[in-house]
Structure formats: structure tokens, C-alpha cells
Design goal:
The complex is a heterodimer of chains A (251) and B (570). By secondary structure, chain A is mostly helical. Chain A contains 8 helices and no strands. Helix content of chain A is 41%, strand content 0%. In chain A, helix 5 packs across helix 6 and helix 6 crosses helix 7. Chain A is globular and about 55 Å long. By secondary structure, chain B is α/β, with parallel strands linked by helices. Chain B is built from 11 helices and 22 strands. In chain B, strands 1, 2, 3, 9, 10, 11, 12 and 22 form an 8-stranded mixed sheet that branches. A 6-stranded antiparallel sheet of chain B has the order 6-15-16-17-14-20. A 4-stranded mixed sheet of chain B has the order 5-4-19-18, covered by helices on one side. In chain B, a hairpin with a 5-residue loop joins strand 18 and strand 19. The chains are: A mainly alpha (251), B alpha/beta (570). Chains A and B meet through helix 7 and helix 8 of A and helix 2, strand 5, helix 9 and strand 18 of B.
Chain lengths: 251, 570
């Protein structure tokens, strides 16, 4: 499938699935439109300015970037997460679920800044069983990792990462996973695992965190989210289908 | 400058289950008690929006902030210990209630075999059943001696269960509340285990089957099976926790105060007595000295051990000589198990932390170990704790970990996968111990605790045997694909395993091999008590909290006696 087809089919899916109707939790359709920008002239699209129609979503349809300052970098993130969690006949992929926005917000906060991690020196290389020993914060790892993705795309295919075919992107992501790529201050595998985990977090966290758009992640997975009680259903011999609910509906 | 506070009868370091139990019993007996808690006040009212997997289960909202303090770790003495920079293998608690707020609620009594494990193993299998590097020892107390305290803890907590397990110790009373609902998923396990000749029973649960008022007058509500227990607080007050039971009980006496944001850094000892504790206000960094007639260490096992070490109380364990007791017999938990992929969708997202059925046919010495190269075993359980989508992505073997195939398989199998899990016993080994780190410090300038730990041959053999048993049951349950747990090799501190760390401040009958006596009174300072799973001489085949609760009640009785009469309690 060519990328143009892919983007077209994503837009098509969004139309038919009702995501673009504006009845969303926590902000607009823009997550679903990121892919549509890819391959176009990104320079004409300032970061975060590709907002939906005013009045859409809980935040008036406005979405912006909190960590990334450069839209090209953000688009690399978007495409990488989409390869990890792609759109298919079950439903949207990472882009359609607004995962890149989720990650952007997380990188700007405690997660990205390693606020709750022990970050005191000395930083020494240890055994695999001793875990994370990098002096880099997560947001520094992401920035470096995305830059390397772009560099690898140029070296291997003489083109921008976002313009690669899916299989070519996969080749680069696999090179991270198999540590064929060298990163500074952190292993490529560690970064890859972080990226993979963050993608799943964005796909399935409560929509209050700006991912899992319209609870589509939960709908695909048959997970009802925040329910007060299953006291009257726990004995059921049959699988119980329940319309998902977000914590955001309480406020 | 240190501000000296007014002397109290009892000070506890940490306010979770053990600190709460000590406080409730001592305050009821008229002693003035202060609890120093380094975290903040929290309670049921803070959990109205707790159904948030990302905040609580992934980003560890209720856990210790390791930017301030962590532990260092290495697999063996040849390695350089390095800090655990982010939480992983175990989740340290912080704040009112401690780990008792975000536990699942499995509430067991260790087996009679556990308390006399050395004597009983030697009698039956000979003294060389395990190699001499395994520092196996009796606990200095028997099940029968501890039974009244188990009974007391279960009544405080209102534990839901049924007494049909032929392998556990004799009970003086039935469970305070009936077992939880036996759901279709649990019945699947029950049928399979029964077919194989085992004796399944409902797991003793601190998620209560019905509303309950405990003997102290504290109310615990009925569980709603919402599927958010472990790593979460309960918004219904239906998961028994210190902050809804023993803490309010202690406060109602008027004899109890809790100081929050109080991080104790030293137990001050003069001669053969302790005089109190020194702590930092974590907000202002002001330093205080809290004098007390009795000091009780009631924080997590690692911090209890660390405080004794930095305060130079007791003799540090030396792995070269085997001498010394402080830090000795650190154990963990071995986790055998098997997953099964089924054809049909099940309500796996509903549940409760302790909703489960268990067999003890391969726990303790329920089965003959004559031809086996390990001792002890594991309880094997099917639990329905409520799965959540970020951390539950079950895929059959050989599925890629990302991309289209992964997405499809993890979604397809989300509600079609069940697991049988074992809580495997962990035997002490000469090379597994706790000490103080010589490089890394916490934000108060105090050295971090250093952990030297690896799995042993005993652990690997136990894991293999129990994993095979789990897989057999899963097959009998009708799974189309059964995936047995991978064999264990080296202990890895990165992936979450279990917060069932034990040892380091072991109880016993002999000061040469234990830190405290069987009232948990320190051998070297009669007005110092150390309470928790650190007292375990080894780790058994169950979750630890029931046994910790019983030990805390016994300790409280000891403290009250000591306050009247003084002297050694044994």
C-alpha cells in the first residue's frame, strides 16, 4: 500500500467512524489528521496549529505541542508510533488515537523530565539486570532517537523518514530494537522499548491524557474504562459488552 | 539545629499496616503514640478518580518517589551495585497506609511448616537436603503460638474466605465474612483442579464479600468488583486498609498523633537503650528529635534494615564469615505460572484484587520432596483481578512485539486469556543479603540500602516444578494454547515481579542468627522493636501481609507488657 492510499484510507475511516462529528473527549479531531499532513509541505503548518473546527471537543478543538518545537520532529514521532500501532480493520492506529499528542504532553511533564527517578551521579554502565543507568532524561532520549531516525532515513534511503514506505520505517525501527544503531548515553533498545511502551500508553490511557481519542482504543479492545461497579455482572456466564466511560465524564 | 520534641511513650517510624496496628493497640492501652510518616495523609476521599490505569498502575502515583531515595542492587558480590533509578521489580509504598493502601488483599497465614522449616525439613529429609549455603532456620515461634494473632488480624480486617483447605494450619475461628463470589472464570479453575485430584478453595480476601464492622468498630464496605485494586486505593472503603481500620481506631482514643512529611534518618542509641529518632521535615528540611520510651520501626523491610544500619544498631551480616545478623536472609518470591489462550471471550476486565481460587497441594510440605531437588513450593491461584489495557497485551508465542500482527493479536486475546500464578517460597542463601551502599546516598545524605541478590538452584528447581503443575491445570481448563512461564535464570530488577521482599531483620530464638526475638524486640536494645516482613527467616508460598499483621499484633502485646514491666520479653 502506498502512503497516499494509507492516508486516504485513514481519512475515510475517520469520516465513517464518526470521529469527526465533534463528540469527543478532550479535544478535537486533529490527532486523526496528523497523517494527512505527512508528505505535504510541513513548513506551511506551524506546530500545533492544525486545529479542528472551533468548538469541537472539550478544548474547543484546539491542540498544540507542549514539548516539541519543531513540527518535522513531531511528524517523525507520529509515523514511528503509527508503525508500532498501525491503523487496520479493527480501528485507528496511533495517529488516529492522537498518541503523538499524548507523548508530546508526557515528554513536557514529570515523565519526560524524570521527576520521580533517581538521577544522582555517578552514572555507570551496569549489567542488564541492573536496569536504567542513563543520565539522560526521557525527553532527551526521544529527541535524540527521532533525530537518529531521520538520519538513518537519509543514510539508508536518501529521503525523509516521514516519506518512507512503511516497510522502510520498520527496517529503521527494527535496527533500534536490535541495537544495530548506536545512541549516545542510552542503548537503542532501551529507547525503542520506551517508544513502544509510550505508544501503548497513549493508545489505551484514559482520554483525559489526550490519547485514546474518543475511547477508540478501549472500544477496539473490549475494555469499558471507568465503570463504578461490576457487582451485578461479575456472575455472568456470557461476555458483557459495555459502552466505555472516561474519567473525564465526571467533570 | 535539631528541635527537641516532647517525649512520648511510643514512636513508630512509618504508618502502614504495622505502624497502624501498633498504634491502635498501644493507644487503646493508654500509651501516648506518635506515628512519623514520610508521605502525606490520604484516604478514601482521595480515590474518587482512581480508575486510572495510566496514573496509578503505570506512573505509580501511590508509590515511593525514588528521586529522593531508592536502593542499589547487584546480582553478586563481584558486581558494582547501582541504583534502581526507576521502580521496577517491586513497588515501595509511601504515604498513610503504605503498601496496605495499594495492595490486592490476599491475606494468608503462613503454614505450620514455615515456622519450623529447619527442624521439620531435617527430620523428614535429613540435614543435607539443601546445601550448607542455604541459611535455613526456624522462626523462634510456632504456628500454634501465632494463631491467636492471625485470628485477631483477620477480625480487624474482616477477611472473606472458607476453611476447606486441608493443607493449612488449624483455625480457632471461621473467617469473619463468607468468601467472595465464585465467578465463571474461577469455576473453570475449580473444575480443572478438582478433575486433577486437587482441593481448590476461595482465596482469603481483604476485598470484603459483605459489609463488616470490626471489633474496634471500624466499618469496611462490600466489594464492587470494579477491577482496580493492586496499585490503586479503594474508593468504596471496601478493600481493608490501615487508613480505614487501625488508623482511625488509634485516633479515636485521643492518644495518637501522626506527623506527616517526617522522614526518619536515625534511631538514636545510648548504651543498651534507644532514646528516640531523628527526622527531617521533608518540606522544610528542618531537623527534629522525637524522644520516646519505645521506638518501633514499622516502615518497609528495606527502610527498617537501613535505619538499623545507619544507626549502628546490631551486627552487620558478613557473607565471608557468615557472622552478623543485620541484613542476613534477604529473600524474595518465586513466581511460577502458566497462561492459557481460550476461544471464548470472558469478563476478565471485571474483578477484585483477591478474587481467586487456590490450591495448596504443592505448597509447603503438602507433597513429598524426597525425589525432588528443592524444598517447599507455592500456592497456585487463578485470580480475576481485573485486567487493564495498557499493561495487558497477551499474545501467543512468536507474535512480534509491535506492528500490525501485534496489534491484532493483543486485541484479539485481551479478553480470552487467563493465567495461573504461583506465590513461590524463597529460601535464604548465604550470598543474598542487604548492606549499606558506599557510593550512593538519599537526598538527606544518608547512604542507600544495598541489595545483593540472585536466584538460586533451589529457586530454579521450585520454579520449574510448579510451572509444570500450573501448565497442567491450564490445559485441563481447556485452553487452546498453553504457555508455561519461562525458566528463571538471573534475577532482574527491571520488570515488575512482586513486592514481597522479606528478611534482613529476622526474628528467632537465638541472637546469633536473628535480629529480634519472637516479640520482635531487638536483642541489643530492649526498648526497640522492628516489625514487618523483614522478620521472616525465609519467604513462604503465600503473600506476606497476613503473617505480617499477626506478627504486628504480637509485637503490640509485647510493647504493652514491656511498658509496664520492662526487660526482655523472652
Amino acid at each position: 500500500m502506498t502512503k497516499e492510499d494509507k492516508n486516504y484510507s485513514r481519512r475515510d475511516f475517520l469520516k465513517t467512524s464518526g470521529i469527526a462529528t465533534g463528540a469527543l473527549i478532550g479535544g478535537g479531531i486533529i490527532g486523526g489528521l496528523i497523517g494527512a499532513n505527512v508528505g505535504n509541505d510541513n513548513a506551511s503548518t506551524p506546530p500545533g496549529s492544525t486545529a479542528g473546527e472551533p468548538g469541537e471537543g472539550g478544548a474547543g478543538g484546539v491542540r498544540g505541542l507542549m514539548f516539541f518545537k519543531n513540527d518535522a520532529e513531531f511528524q517523525i514521532l507520529a509515523q514511528a508510533t503509527e508503525r508500532i500501532f498501525p491503523e487496520d480493520d479493527l480501528g485507528p492506529g496511533a495517529i488516529g488515537l492522537a498518541v503523538p499528542y499524548f507523548i508530546d504532553q508526557q515528554l513536557a511533564g514529570a515523565y519526560g523530565e524524570n521527576s520521580r527517578e533517581y538521577m544522582q551521579a555517578p552514572f555507570l554502565e551496569g549489567q542488564k539486570t541492573q536496569g536504567y543507568q542513563s543520565r539522560l532524561k526521557r525527553n532527551e532520549m526521544f529527541r535524540q532517537g527521532l533525530q537518529i531516525m531521520q538520519q538513518e532515513a537519509q543514510d539508508r534511503f536518501q529521503t525523509d523518514f516521514v516519506d518512507l514506505e512503511g516497510e522502510q520505517m520498520d527496517e529503521i525501527l527494527t535496527a533500534f530494537q536490535e541495537e544495530e544503531i548506536t545512541m549516545k548515553g542510552v542503548s537503542a533498545l532501551f529507547f525503542f522499548r520506551l517508544l513502544r511502551a509510550a505508544t501503548l500508553e497513549g493508545a489505551y490511557a484514559d482520554p483525559i491524557y489526550s490519547g485514546n481519542q474518543n475511547m477508540e482504543g478501549w472500544k477496539m479492545k473490549g475494555y469499558p474504562g471507568h465503570q463504578l461497579s461490576y457487582l451485578n455482572q461479575i456472575d455472568s456466564e456470557e461476555f458483557v459488552e459495555i459502552e466505555p466511560k472516561s474519567l473525564g465524564t465526571q467533570h | 539545629m535539631v528541635t527537641n520534641l516532647e517525649k512520648v511513650d511510643v514512636v513508630t517510624v512509618g504508618v502502614g499496616w504495622t505502624g497502624g496496628i501498633i498504634a491502635a493497640e498501644c493507644a487503646k492501652a493508654g500509651l501516648k503514640v506518635v506515628g512519623l510518616e514520610r508521605g502525606r495523609e490520604r484516604g478514601t476521599e482521595d480515590f474518587a478518580i482512581v480508575h486510572d490505569e495510566y496514573r496509578y498502575a503505570v506512573r505509580y502515583e501511590l508509590m515511593q518517589d525514588v528521586s529522593k531515595e531508592t536502593v542499589t542492587f547487584r546480582n553478586n558480590r563481584q558486581q558494582k551495585a547501582l541504583p534502581m533509578r526507576q521502580l521496577g521489580s517491586f513497588l515501595l509504598g509511601e504515604g498513610l497506609g503504605g503498601s496496605g493502601t495499594h495492595w490486592n488483599g490476599h491475606t494468608w497465614r503462613f503454614l505450620p511448616y514455615d515456622f519450623q522449616i529447619k527442624t521439620l525439613t531435617d527430620e523428614k529429609y535429613g540435614a543435607d537436603k539443601l546445601a550448607p549455603e542455604y541459611t535455613l532456620q526456624d522462626w523462634g515461634i510456632t504456628y500454634d503460638e501465632l494463631e491467636p494473632y492471625f485470628d485477631k488480624f483477620e477480625k480487624t480486617a474482616g477477611i472473606s474466605g472458607e476453611d476447606i483447605n486441608p493443607f493449612w494450619g488449624k483455625r480457632s475461628n471461621p473467617f469473619p465474612t463468607p468468601p467472595m463470589k465464585k465467578t465463571p472464570i474461577l469455576k473453570k479453575f475449580e473444575t480443572a483442579a478438582t478433575n486433577l485430584g486437587y482441593t481448590p478453595f476461595m482465596l482469603p480476601s481483604a476485598n470484603l464479600s459483605e459489609a463488616y464492622v470490626n471489633p474496634d468498630g471500624a466499618s469496611i464496605n462490600a466489594c464492587q468488583y470494579c477491577g482496580f485494586c493492586e496499585r490503586f486505593g479503594c474508593e468504596y472503603g471496601a478493600k481493608t486498609s490501615p487508613e480505614i481500620t487501625v488508623v482511625p481506631t488509634a485516633r479515636e482514643t485521643g492518644n495518637y498523633e501522626i506527623t506527616f512529611n517526617a522522614n526518619v534518618v536515625e534511631v538514636v542509641k545510648e548504651g543498651d537503650r534507644v532514646t528516640g529518632v531523628r527526622y527531617f521535615d521533608t518540606v522544610t528540611f528542618e531537623e527534629f528529635f522525637q524522644p520516646a520510651e519505645v521506638v518501633v520501626l514499622t516502615s518497609y523491610i528495606m527502610n527498617n534494615a537501613k535505619l538499623l544500619m545507619v544507626s549502628n544498631i546490631g551486627e552487620m551480616y558478613n557473607p565471608d564469615t557468615g557472622q552478623g545478623t543485620l541484613g542476613r536472609n534477604y529473600c524474595y518470591q518465586i513466581l511460577p505460572g502458566a497462561s492459557g489462550f481460550f476461544e471464548e471471550k470472558m469478563n476478565t476486565f471485571m474483578g477484585a484484587g483477591s478474587l481467586g481460587m487456590t490450591i495448596d497441594d504443592f505448597n509447603g510440605d503438602s507433597f513429598d520432596h524426597g525425589d525432588l531437588d528443592f524444598i517447599h513450593g507455592a500456592s497456585l491461584s487463578m485470580t480475576q483481578t481485573g485486567i487493564r489495557p495498557i499493561l495487558t497485551n497477551p499474545v501467543p508465542p512468536d507474535t512480534p512485539s509491535w506492528g500490525a500482527e501485534f496489534k491484532k493479536a493483543s486485541i484479539e486475546n485481551f479478553n480470552k486469556t487467563l493465567s495461573i500464578g504461583g506465590q513461590g517460597a524463597s529460601m535464604p542463601h548465604r550470598e543474598n543479603y542487604m548492606a549499606l551502599d558506599s557510593t550512593y546516598k538519599d537526598i538527606y545524605g544518608v547512604p542507600l540500602l544495598q541489595l545483593t541478590y540472585n536466584f538460586t538452584d533451589q529457586d530454579r528447581a521450585l520454579h520449574k516444578f510448579l510451572t509444570e503443575k500450573s501448565a497442567e491445570i491450564m490445559k485441563e481448563m481447556g485452553a487452546k494454547t498453553v504457555v508455561a512461564g519461562s525458566p528463571i535464570s538471573d534475577y532482574d530488577i527491571v520488570p515488575y515481579q512482586t513486592t514481597h521482599n522479606t528478611g534482613g531483620t529476622v526474628m528467632g530464638a537465638d541472637p546469633a542468627t536473628s535480629v529480634v526475638n519472637n516479640y520482635l524486640q531487638h536483642w541489643d536494645a530492649e526498648n526497640l522493636f522492628v516489625v514487618g516482613a523483614g522478620n521472616f527467616a525465609h519467604n513462604g508460598g503465600y503473600n506476606p501481609t497476613g503473617t505480617v499483621g499477626a506478627l504486628a499484633y504480637r509485637c503490640a502485646e509485647g510493647i504493652i507488657n514491656y511498658s509496664k514491666n520492662g526487660g526482655s520479653l523472652v
